[in-house]
Amino acid sequence: LTKRKQDRPDLVERFELFINTWEMCNAYSELNDPIDQRERFKAQDAAAAAGDEEANHTDEDFLNALEVGMAPTGGIGYGIDRLCMLLTDSAAIRDVLFFPTLKSAGK
């Protein structure tokens, strides 16, 4: 789903946000080129036909949205746990996990 860089099509438009030396999130420019997306779906369909259980399939509704001019979008993965780390000055993410079962057993 990540847009290719215009000047370097072998790379994608992606970045990470760091605050206080901590990686806070991953982000990217979402692909909004219907021709490129259709080609990627074709590759996924071929992978699925070859037995790849994790391959996606062509989403015609999504392609239609791209073709009629879906606005540029972006994706960002930023969890509340990372924000809590920043606000509480915690050194480790396990220090701010809400669910004790997600913490390491010995900690």
Describe the SSE topology:
Blueprint: E1 14-19, E2 22-29, H1 34-49, H2 60-67, E3 74-77, H3 80-88
Antiparallel strand pairs: 1-2, 2-3
- Molecular shape: elongated
Enumerate how many helices there are, as a single number: 3
Number of strands: 3
Low-confidence parts = none
The fraction of residues in strands falls at: 15-25%
Mean residue pLDDT: 85
**Kindly, what is the distance between the CA atoms of the first and last residues, rounded to a whole number of angstroms?**
38 Å
Order of helices and strands: EEHHEH
Major sheet: 3 strands, antiparallel
Strand order of the largest sheet: 1-2-3
Estimated structural class:
alpha+beta
What is the radius of gyration? 19 Å
Q: Percent of residues in helical segments? A: 25-40%
Describe the structure.
The chain is 31% helix and 17% strand. It contains 3 helices and 3 strands. A 3-stranded antiparallel beta sheet has the order 1-2-3. β1 and β2 (22-29) form a beta hairpin.
